[in-house]
Structures are given as structure tokens and as C-alpha cells.
Amino acid sequence: MDLGAIFNLSTLMNTINTATIVVLAGLGCLMTDQAGMMCIGIDGMMTAGAFAAVIGSWLCSSWIMGLVFALAVGLLLGGFYGLFVIRYKSDEFIIGVALNIFAVAITTFLLRSIPGQSGSFHPATGAVVKLPSFSIAGSNVSIMVPLSWLLVALTWLLVYRTPLGFWLHASGEHPESLRSVGRSPERMKYLGSLACGLFCGLSGAYLSLGYLSTFTENMSASQGYVAVACVIFGRSNPVYVFLAALLFGFIDAAGQRMQGIVDPTLTATFPYIGTILMMVILAVRYTAMKKKRA
Amino acid sequence: MSQAETVISFRHITMAFPGVVANDDVSLDIRKGEVFALVGENGAGKSTLMKVLYGMNEPTEGEVWVRGQQVRHFSPANAIGMGIGMVHQHFMLVPSFTVAQNVVLGDEPRKGLFCDFAKARQTVEDLVKEYGLKVEPDDRIEDISVGLQQRVEILKALRRGADILILDEPTAVLTPQETDELFAVIRRIVAEKQMTIIIITHKLGEVMAISDRVGVMRAGKLVGVCETADVSERILASMMVGKEVLLDAIERADSGEDGVAIEVEGLRVRDSRGLEAVRGVSLTVRRGEILGIAGVEGNGQSELLEAITGLRPIESGRVSILGKRADGLSPKAIRALGLSHVPEDRIATGVSVKADVTDNLIVGKERRREFSALGIHMKRGPIREYAKKVFERFDIRAAGLDTAVGSMSGGNMQKVVVAREFSFDTPVLIISQPTRGVDIGAMDFIHQQIVEKRNAGCAILLVSADLDELYRLSDRMVTIYEGEITGEFKPEDIPKTEISYYMTGGRKEARA
Q1: Which pLDDT score is estimated for A33?
Q2: How do B459-464 and B428-432 pair as beta strands?
């Protein structure tokens, strides 16, 4: 096997591309995890964001409006998640799953009713404006890539260096301690949910407007679940989550490269096998830690 | 100190929760610069009253005045603003944060957008110097002892400028040495900073050691406020438990049964924190006898019963039920030896609050042939018929057999537990707090049932925080203090005021 066929520039670009989708959603998930209400509904939020971005860009012929639409939908779904989990004390897992199912169904439905298409949305060339991009070493790179890196750094600062980040974490780990010093843990949890929606909106916009300008049914392809795995694996630390997303992106890209050598249906499973391995490592580590504590 | 000004004034405070009145018309003045102890049994309403002061409960009725101003908004933020700090029984600390982070939580020093860690650390170091409470600002809460965690809580309150400090059961989690250190700190901050301290406890020795004045609560009411110097532990103990309920005597009969049914020898048990809660207890209960265990709560009674019934592992010692070894067996196996158990906390362990009356009554008998086919298929018909019989016999008052037990009153819930356990018809009964929070009617009924069991030849081990109950039911009583048996009496031989002395640490030989 020619390793050069796997480790080359194209693989690197694919790695970064996939990692960007995952890390943006992961940052969202992390905001809810810090607040003690980890949202697995990010997959659905991404799908809805991707759809809203395409529609926004198509209607207004502007990528900015695409982004605005995606962020607005993200905010809406984040608020919905927060409302049910915080106010109505529903199970976060159930609401998360409901969001995922709902997002696929509603986008499929709206795809048929707004542009009147089914399966996927392929508007005339130029009708949908992509996110801006620039060129490095002959490769096209979306601005969302450096933006996501910036966001990783900013989120890290927020979580580990600002009072707001401490309150967010306290609202998850020990909400009563926050309440006893006169701060509302619920407010922090809402903040986490809304931020989650925003990040997922970005991730969705990148999914549909980053390099493509199309929306396909079930576009997230369960990468939201991978992002959840990255958050767990990265223990909710933005930098670790980013590294986990890169690892996942690499497995995905390398799998694509190996399609010529191995059956492509098999290589397509690599990222998910990688996710399972991550979880196994985590479980082993967790059990060891528990033993140590006991 | 009697001339000192009043800093806090509770006026006719009533705090009602659904189904319970936790504080009933409480009026109390706290003076500036005093250490005020608030004592009472668990559930007497001490913590509830203090949570009103700290703004965590808004009273149903009544007013709170702080330094001559009426409190209008009940919130912790407002209480902090008025210089009130509270160290909760369960610490309000974020385990993964450092000491400094916790001390400044909610009001962090800032440098621009960011938290100023250096300043936070400095703040802690300054407080440590000023009050002599040694802690390391960079240690993580999850890595330090509970004694140190408590210091962090105190520092947190002091940093917020508290000059009224509420300590909720501060010594419950401390070792004796840590307790001494805490008391030294309290004395120092009162003397040097003129702080006002309110300490909630049920340990009377500590009340005598640290407080200037003491208030006693019982069943939501403030039953007395005294200068500590004017009272003794014995007087306080009788104030805490001494409710006089006039009930008719229950007829006792000799069953003719005899022989030892419960035998406990040298039993040692650890509590959930790993501390030794039962320290070498030995006792026997014969058939046709009720042995009452008297003690202030938290002196090992719960652990003792849990150990006997197999719910808690035994360190050393021996338990026999009807002549058969029971230690080391599972709760199910112990029950099979002929034991039933009415647990102390009916909601946590006594019933399933979501299930209906029928299901709660049948639990434990569901595999019997008359109720299930092959132990799989439940025969609803016979089950309902059986439940209906028990329901009527025990006079359970509920809308119907399909009422969720959680929606019933405490008394009826307790009757469900008693009905279920008593209808196992076992020769040994372990009963804990059979009538806590139960109205007098239900209490009398349950008492009758207990004595009826005794008359039928059962051996009954009874733990209760209610001395009247113990006196009414027991044939023999033992007192327990800090996990050890401190005395054995016949109820007719010892007055209540005297037995409370043994419950608070007095010894047989100390009886003069």
C-alpha cells in the first residue's frame, strides 16, 4: 500500500474540512455539557442550520443572509431545547433525539414546499451564494475554517478564563452553589443552550454553503453524533474537542483515500468505528478512574 | 450580653410546604455579637427557618427584620447584600474548582473580560491572614478534607462581607479535632469582629460549649429560648423530645411465647462516610417483647437497624434471628428467616410513591402461588381482593386501591408500609420511626397494631425519636449514644427527663 496516497495534501484538506464541521457542532455540544445538560440534538440543529443557510442564501442571494438564517434557526432550536430541558425538566436525551428526528422531517418537508424539490436542492448555478473562501497552496479554504479555529480559542478563554465560563460550568456541576451566591443557574443553562444552537447553525451553514451550495436530505450524516463523541472524549475542553475532531476528520479522509484499495462501503464505516474506539478508550479510562477513587 | 441590640427579628414566621408545615408561627430575636444555637430533632424546622433568613425560602406568613429593616425580597443575593452568610449542611462548593475560584464564585475580581486569578488568590490569602483560617487557594475542592471545605464556605461568606453567619449542622461532618478548631474560629471571629453566629445543631454538648443563648424547636414550633448558662443538656433534651400526648393505655397480654428471637453481639457498623457508627452493640429481644431504642438521632440507630436487616455491611459482630445466623445474608435471605422491617424513611425506602396502593401492598408476596402463575403472570383478581382486605383492616384512607401512594398523606402512607410488613406475619419485626409526621389518630392506630403483634408473640425491635412513643410501647428500653448502648431500663423505672440524660452521653456509672 502506498502511504503517499493516504498522507498527502488532499487528505489534509479533507481532514480539516470534516474536522471543521465536527468541531463547530462540538463547541455547541460542549456549551451544553458544561451546563450539565449535554445536547445530543446537535445533529438535528446542524441539519436545520444547513437547510436554513441554503434557503437564506437562495432567497436573498447573499451568503450573509444564509448565515443569518442558519444562526436564527440555531437560536430557535437551542431555545427550544433549553425550554424543555430547563423549564419543563424533560429528559435531555429524549429532547435531543426528538430534535434530531424532527429536523430531518421538517427540512425534508420544507424542501418540498419552499423550493418544491425532493431529495436534494440544486438551484441554478449562482442562485445560491457560497461562503467566502480563499486559496492556499492551490486548495480552496472556506473562511469558516480559520473562524472555527478562532472560535475554539475564544471558547477556551470563555470556559477557563472568564467569570461567565465559571458560572456556566458551576450551573452544570453544582447548580445550588451558584444559586447560593445569588446567580441563577437556569440563566446559565439557557445561555449554554442558545450558544449551542448558534454553533450548530454555523456548522450547518458550513455544511451546505462551505464548498457546496446544495442541501441534501439528512445532510449532517450523523456527524453530530460524532461531535458528541468528541466532546465526551475531549472532556468538554475546547482544545481537546478540536484535537478529537481532527483525529476523526483524518480517519474520515484517510478512509476516502483508501477507497481505491478497500471496498468503499467499508471505508465509509471507518469514522464510526473510530468513534466507537474512542468511546471504548474512554470507558476503560473512566472505569480505571472510578477504581482509583473508590 | 443581654443589653445588646437585636440584629435579626423573625416575626410570626409560618413556612408551609405542600402537605407539611415546617415552621409554625415562629417569633425569635437574635442579638448582635452572640452565638445563638438552634436545636431540635431532624425535621423540627431549624434549617427551614434559617433558609428563610438566607432568602432561600419565602415565608408563607410573617416578617423578617434585619437591623431594623423589613426584608421585602427573599433571595440569597439580597441576604448576601444584607451581610448574611450561610454555611450549608451540604456544602455549596463546585468540586472541580479551586479554593480561590469557589471563594470568589459569583462575584469574581476581573481584569477586563477575564477573571483576575492573581487577585482572587490574593483575596483568599488576605482572608486567611485576617481570620486565621488556613487553606491553600490553589487546591481543588474535591482533593481537600471536609473540614477544609467548610473553611472555604466560611471564607466565602466572610469575603461577601457577612457579619451574620448561619452554620447549618457544621459539626455533622467533622472529626472531634476539626470541631474544636471550628469552635476556636467561631470564638475568635465573634470576639474580634463582633460577628453574630447562628449555629444549627442537635448535639447538645456543642450547644453548651459554644453558645450564648439557645432556642429549641420541635415540630415546627419554637418551644423555648434560654440563656445557655441557665440550662443543662438534660433540660434541653427534654425540651427537644418532650411532647406530651395523652393517649389511653393499650392492653397488654402475655402471649405465652418465649425464647430469644433477636440476638445481636458486639456489632460494629460503619456509616456511609466510613466512620464507625455502631460501636460494639449487643442486645437481645425475646418473643412477646418490645425492645425500644432511645437516642438522639444520628447516634447509630439507623445503621444498627440497616445492619440487622442486611441493608448495610457489618464490620464485625454477630446477628442471629430466631437462632439462625443472619449477618452476611442478603436482605431477602434475612426476611426469609422470619423478619419484617418498617424502615425509618417511608418515602425513600418504605413505599414506591409512583405505584398504587395495591402494588405497594403486594410487594414481597407477588411470587406467592395464589397471586401469580409460575411467578410470571400476575393474577390481578386475587391480588386486588387481598389488597382490599388489607386496605380495610388497616383503615387506610385513600380514594381507592389505585391511588398513587405518593399522593397520600404521611399517616396513610405509613399505614401502607405497616400493613404490608405486618401482614407477612413474621415472628420478628424491626420497626423504625413508625409514626413520624403522622397525625394522632393514625399514630394511635399504628401503636395498637404494634402492641397486638407483641401480644401475639412477636419479638419487636423499635427505634423512635419520640420518647412518648417508646414509653408507651416498650417493655424494655436501651439508650444509645454515639453508637454505644449507655443504659437499659424498664419504662416504669425511669422518668423521661432522666433517660434523656443517657441519650446525650451520660453513663450508667454517672447516675448519682
Answers
A1: 96
A2: parallel
CB contact under 8 A, A170 and B97: yes
Domain boundary (B399, B425, B451) is at B425
A167:B106 CB<8 A:
yes
In-domain check, residue B19: yes
pLDDT at B511 exceeding the cut of 50: no
In terms of domains, do B421 and B436 share one? no
pLDDT of residue B509: 44
- Same domain for B194 and B56: yes
B109 and B188 fall within a common domain = yes
Predicted local distance difference test score (pLDDT) of residue B239: 81
The whole-number pLDDT of residue B19 equals 61
Domain encompassing residue B376: 350-425
- What is the pLDDT at residue B2? 45
How far apart CA B342 and CA A77 sit, in angstroms, is 49
Q: Tell which of A171, A181, A186, A237 to mutate to test the B interface (max B CBs under 10 Å).
A: A181
Query: With contact defined as beta carbons under 8 Å apart, do B319 and B264 qualify?
Result: yes
Residues B205 and B94 grouped into a single domain: yes
List the CATH number of the domain containing B180: 3.40.50.300
Q: Choose the weakest-confidence range: B133-137, B235-239, B356-360.
A: B235-239
Please check whether residue B345 lies inside any domain of the structure. Answer: no
Does B52 lie in the same domain as B22? Answer: yes
pLDDT (mean) for B294-305: 88
Interface test with chain A among B105, B119, B143, by most A beta carbons within 10 Å: B105
DSSP letter (8 states) at residue B42: T
DSSP state, residue A124: P
Say yes or no: B410 and B477 in one domain. Answer: no
A vs B: CB pairs below 8 A: 63
Model confidence at B44, pLDDT cuts 50, 70, 90, reads confident
C-beta atoms of B96 and A182 within 8 A:
no
For B232-242, what is the mean pLDDT?
77
- Pick from B88, B90, B101: which is nearest to A166 by CB? B101
Residue B75 buriedness (CB in 10 A; 0-12 / 13-18 / 19+):
middle
The reported pTM is 0.70
Residue listed under C-alpha cell 419485626? B429
3-class secondary structure per residue, B115-161: ECHHHHHHHHHHHHHHHCCCCCCCCEHHHCCHHHHHHHHHHHHHHCC
Helix axis angle for A63-82 and A42-60, nearest 10°, is 150
Residues 95-154 of A with CB under 8 A from B: none
CA nearest to B101 within chain A: A166
Contact residues on chain A for B93, CB-CB shorter than 8 A? 174, 177
Nearest CA in chain A to B55: A180
Mean pLDDT over all residues of chain B? 87
Q: Do B76 and A180 touch (CB under 8 A)?
A: yes
Mean pLDDT value across residues B48-55: 92
Q: Measured between CB atoms, which of A161, A173, A176 is closest to B95?
A: A173
Q: Which chain B residue lies closest to A168 (C-alpha atoms)?
A: B106
**Number of domains observed in the structure of chain B:** 3
Global ipTM: 0.85
Closest partner residue to B76 among A157, A163, A181, by Cβ? A181
In angstroms, rounded to a whole number, what is the distance separating the alpha carbons of residues B315 and B307? 9
Give dist(CA A231, CA B365) in Å, integer: 47
CA dihedral A246, A250, A253, A258 (to 10 degrees): -170
A290 in B contact zone (CB under 8 Å) = no
Low-confidence ranges of chain A (pLDDT < 70): 1-6, 125, 290-294
A294 touches chain B (CB under 8 A): no
B95 at interface of A, judged by CB pairs closer than 8 A: yes
Q: Please name the member of A162, A173, A182 whose beta carbon is closest to the beta carbon of B106.
A: A182
Same domain, B154 and B271: no
Residues in chain B with CB shorter than 8 Å from the CB of A167 are 105-106
